[in-house]
Amino acid sequence: MRKICLPRWLGMTLIVVALLALPLVLTQVGTAWVRIANLAILFIFLSLGLNIVVGMAGLLDLGYVAFYAVGAYTWALLASPHFGVHLPFWIILPIGALLACIAGAVLGAPTLRLRGDYLAIVTLGFGEIVRIFMNNLSSPFNITNGPKGITRIDSFSVGDMDFRSTDTLLGIDFTGPTKYYYVLLLLLLFVIVVNLRLQKSRIGRAWVAIREDEIAAKAAGINTRNIKLLAFAMGASFGGIAGGMFAAMQGFVSPESFVLHESIMILAMVVLGGMGNVWGVIAGALLLSFVPEFLRYTVEPAQMALFGHLLIEPEVLRMLIFGVALVLTMRFRPAGLWPESRHKREMGEMNEERG
Amino acid sequence: MNLPMKTLSFSVAAAVLMIGCGKKEEAPAPQAAAPAPAVPVVVKIGHVAPLTGGIAHLGKDNENGARLALDEANAENVKIGGQAVKFELVAEDDQADPKVGNTVAQKLVDAKVVGVVGHLNSGTTIPASAIYNGAGLPMISGSATNPALTEQGFKGVFRVVGRDDQQGPAVANYLIATTKPKTVAIVDDATAYGEGLANEVEKTLKDAGVKVLPREKGTDKTADWKAVLTKIKGKKPDAVFYGGMDATGGPLLKQARELKIGAVFAFGDGACTDKMAELAGDAAENLVCSQAGIPVQAAGKKFLDGYKAKFNIDPILYSPFTYDSTKLLIAAMQKADSTDPAKYLPALQSIDFNGASGNIQFDEKGDRKDAEMTIFTMKEGKITPLAIIKSGKSLTLDEYAALGAPAAPPSATPAAEAKPAEGAAPAQK
Amino acid sequence: MDIFLQQIINGLTTGSVYAIVALGYTMVYGVIQLINFAHGEVVMIGAMVAFSVIMMVVNAGLPIPPLFAVLAGVLVAIPACMAIGYMLERVAYRPLRHAPRLAPLITAIGMSIVLQHLALLIWGRDPRAFPQIIENPSFAIGGAAISGVQIAIILLSFAMMAGLTWFVYRTRFGIAIRATAEDVRVAALMGVDANRVIAATFVIGAGLGAVAGVMVGTYYGITHYTMGFMLGLKAFSAAVLGGIGNIAGAMLGGILLGLVEALGTGYIGDFTDLCHWPVVGEMLSARCADGGHAVLFGSNYQDVFAFVVLILVLVFRPSGLLGERVSERA
Fold it and tell me: What is the mean pLDDT of residues A26-33?
């Protein structure tokens, strides 16, 4: 153990330095890239949360965005002029996580007996139900402001430092997005550590046991009901935190940010990266966040260079390439880009049996 | 989205003086002598609308409007600050997603655009406006009608389209005046636009003592309205108002007639298009609908012809407004003789401009002043204007034309160039 | 009463459309236990192809009856969709047959993005008005109206279900399908060409999808390149509700879902109008005065009604109404 650890720490230091310097470099290219990086981190968050449910515990969840929505609306309602409440982040984020956690348990409880695709459709339905409620809770009593969404949400702030404005420190401009980047990075570190610890813990192993064979897991003395509920609840609370940060960063939430398509994207990140493997999931989230943006910048110039005029509109081509990329990646790396070694082996066998 | 409000340019004379509205040759004349610099300065103007997704066709329409305006300006070899400038459109796709909207907004800021036209949806425009405001960039939306947009107190945020709370009362009052309904059913598509507009209609109806049935809703993708309509049928309303777009409004109307609902159907601007006739067939005849300002078909002739010639299709809905928005930005730059947002913003705020959608001036919030609303009906597959509501009064087209004529001294000045078309257009329909 | 009957007719029609689309999901699922996530897009393309063909026939001005124009649309749409179904299987499913089971889900999502945007390129972003050329007579039953198209949709869907059942249970190929569904390896040992069978289920499902697409286009009079998604979602729910993999279940699930939506929309709003409730209504007297309302769950919750019924059914019958086995795979 020790032998590997030392060089690893060196590498870690390099990575940390690179991560810290990243937004400053990106700002030179364009602040938009810092925003994209921030969204990517949020998606890493979400994917890691979903990874607990899908990757570790093997419960296919297509409604994960519901918890994200719960977190985002918690922040929006508790820190905006909508109700005139303005609580600080260290109260709202835990409340958001808790509410999402409860929502996770509420979803988990009735679905304990369901497996596979049945579970998928129920979770999908749950996600849609949450969104529809957010969209319609403006009448008869106005709670969420309906489709108009909630505007002028407070940004993240510590003491007097508002994370939406630009500060200058040591001659370097720290723009709003840059500051958010550091907060998100910090939170991300926390989430990654929790995930890595979970993976190796008793609970993590219990999840894997359930994923591989629920009956055997039960026979081995695992309380499958509680452990499954725990997976839903934990996964959900990560979504809740991500949602809170999303609301703070955007300053605006509306139900259209929480559509099924988002759940599917998050799932695609988890699966593409490699279910169950924290690093794989991170890679998947990064890839799917950056590729569409990268294409946004390259598709048009590339066509102009190749054909001299626009053959296919950039937006459409971007989505086409994205779709093809999903297919090809899965075609050649079906267990994901960076699969969990144990997972790959076992899933392979299981599918063999099925033919 | 409401359509434009056009203010009647009484103040045309003033307009003429102040704005060089739009373009035109002489305005920057002083420096005209500058021996044509070989390379014109490139001035970037951003445009954002959804170009993929359910309302992508409207997004493209908006973009076309802006593109047309830029091309026209470029053809005129505009000079600003003594230098020849070439305008360039930086067009972005926000996928109607606020998250993407913020990213592309930032991208425009990075690209150093000097002003932004967009976005299409209120849902993406509102959050993005904070970013433009932070960067000191003026933005003009040609289609975001949610009142909240201009209630944020941002100085550089404008819209040339009417607010939901201006259009709703107009169509509601027209219904009250003409059909004298006792009971009205209101349906919306559960979007910020549809619901917002429907709420305004409901408020006006209730204030007038009309009984309003509980709100029914679909979504912006609903094709099957039968269940909702059957329920409405059971309550026998005299009129039905729908807040939503033509893609859902068409099937709604068609199915209503299949169910033999005889009530008058009224719509807002989103469903006030010729497409309604295509989608609903004969059922669309005699529908009532409203548009803020003067409709696409009645937009300035120069715009209509230019659009058709350039894109080989007809404009759909908001392109006259994005066209005007773009021209407004350019006009303000010319007036201030600077492309620096900080310098031309005051000129934009005080502008008085005659565009394809009529005369445009902004109030202190950035909303269009004294908007006109037009009420239409469907006749033989074409929406046909019935009345123009101006300052709370309902005018027939002739009355309006009479009003318009003296107000627009023909061709006296560059500013008036869009004017005759505007006055004449409603009449020709 | 006429209103109630009308809602039943509405629900039956919508439900029949769901049912036919659901058959496509169920065919594929029954054999390889995978969700064909791109099926909704196949339905959309069916509608679009038929739209183009009908427009072509109409514009050509040939002296043929309108019904034949629609039939021509169907006849071109079916093979077109079948080709897409086959391609889907070859590209997105066959190479991944031994991969972890979520992998084909992702390829299918990828394919549906590709199909949707190809459709955008070909047919544009505008909603297209489906040509309303056939006579659509309206009949009155007990005060409710039912149109010719509605009757045709209901009858056709039952006919297709019956045909499919006959095919699966009474023909040699059907036996091969069922054998493959039971156990691919053993079926292969018995001389069944599993690849052919699996491809066939995709092709058949897509063919049914094409018919559904034309029905939807004719019934609602509109097609749009994003229409496949929600329709697919509802149909998939219907298939699961009835017990995915079961042909009669898809039918039952579809019709049940259609009825729940229609009746839920039609009546729950009135029942949950707080102004009609005894105690609460008085507390809200300010807003309830003069015919005001305070509806908790109106038609805005139409999709919620459908999903709640789905969840309830699954909680009490985890494998759907007619599903026999509990899925063993997670």
Answer: 80
B414: pLDDT confidence band, cut at 50, 70 and 90? Answer: very low
Query: Is it true that the peptide bond before C39 is cis, omega within 30 degrees of 0?
Result: no
CA dist B217 and A146 (Å) reads 12
At B274, the amino acid letter reads D
Conformation bin of residue C127: beta by default, left when phi > 0, alpha when psi is -120 to 50: beta
- Per the CB < 8 A criterion, the answer to whether B111 and B90 are in contact is yes
Strands B288-292 and B353-355: unpaired
CB within 8 A of B55, min separation 6: which ones? B96, B120, B121, B220, B245
How open is the CA angle A260-A320-B60, to the nearest 5 degrees? 80
* B92 neighbors B282 (Cβ within 8 angstroms): no
Selecting from C125, C127, C269 the residue whose C-beta is nearest the C-beta of B214 gives C269
Q: Inter-axis angle of helices A314-332 and C102-123, to 10 degrees?
A: 160
| 3-state SS assignment for residue B387 | strand
Give the span between the Cα atoms of A294 and B408, in whole angstroms: 50
Q: What is the spatial distance between Cα C63 and Cα C55, in angstroms, rounded to a whole number?
A: 14
pLDDT digits (tens, 9 = 90+) for C140-150: 888 888 999 99
- The Cβ-side half-sphere exposure at A341, using a 13 Å CA radius, reads 0
* CB–CB contact C307 A60 (8 Å): no
Contact at CB, C106 and A115, closer than 8 angstroms: no
Q: Residue A6: count other Cβ atoms within 10 Å of its Cβ.
A: 9
Residue whose token pair is 């989505």: A319
Within 8 A by CB and 6+ apart from B287, the residues are B253, B265, B266, B267, B276, B280, B377, B378
B279 touches chain C (CB under 8 A): yes
Q: What is the pLDDT of residues B198-256, one digit of tens each?
A: 999 999 999 999 999 988 999 888 889 999 999 999 999 999 999 998 889 999 999 99
β-pairing verdict for B83-93 and B79-80: antiparallel
Q: Most B CBs within 10 Å: which of C5, C284, C300, as the mutation test of the B interface?
A: C300
CA distances from B285 to A307, B194, C194 (A): 47, 22, 56
pLDDT level of residue A244 (50, 70, 90 thresholds): very high
Window from A137-141, B52-56, C266-270 with minimum mean pLDDT: B52-56
| Chain A: closest CA distance from residue C268 (Å) | 15
Which of B47, B94, B126, B215 is the best mutation test for A, with the most CBs of A within 10 A? B126
CA-to-CA distance for B258 and B224, rounded, in angstroms?
12
Q: Are strands A157-158 and A161-162 parallel, antiparallel or unpaired?
A: antiparallel
Contacts of B226 in chain C (CB under 8 A): 10, 13-14, 262
Closest CA to A184 of A40, A55, A294: A40
Cα separation, A175 vs A152, whole angstroms: 19
Neighbours of A190 (CB within 10 A): 11
Token pair, residue C191, equals: 């001389």
pLDDT of residue B170: 86
What is the spatial distance between Cα C83 and Cα C68, in angstroms, rounded to a whole number?
23
Q: Return d(Cα B301, Cα B357) in angstroms, integer.
A: 10
Which B residues in the span 152-171 are in contact with C, Cβ-Cβ below 8 Å? none
Distance separating alpha carbons of residues B46 and B326, to the nearest angstrom: 9
pLDDT of B405: 38
> Strand B288-292 and strand B211-212: pairing?
unpaired
Peptide bond into C104 cis (omega under 30): no
DSSP assignment letter at A133:
H
Q: Which is nearest to C254 in space by CA: C40, C15, C7, C12?
A: C15
**Cβ-based neighbours of A328, under 8 Å, separated by 6 or more:** none
Beta bridge partners of B393: B390
Q: Cα separation of C79 and C66, whole Å? A: 21
